[in-house]
Write a structure and sequence with these properties.
This is Aspartyl-phosphate phosphatase Spo0E family protein. This protein has a domain of 33 residues. Helix content is 80%, strand content 0%. It contains two helices and no strands. The longest helix has 22 residues.
Length: 55
């Protein structure tokens, strides 16, 4: 059984991860594995957010 985060926590997590990804990209480049890892994690959170908002 998967427990969903409250929407406000998910939004905060998305915001933090987005800032981390941007910072990593600025310092290491957009093709750096760490930037890509952040991007992929952000995709997962955004997909979860989309499912919650749109059903």
């Amino acid at each position: 059984m998967k427990i969903e985060l409250p929407i406000y926590k998910l939004e905060a997590e998305i915001s933090l991860l987005r800032m981390e990804m941007i910072s990593t990209a600025e310092h290491k480049g957009i093709e750096h594995p760490e930037t890509i890892k952040c991007s992929q994690a952000l995709d997962v959170l955004l997909n979860r957010y989309q499912k919650i908002k749109c059903g």
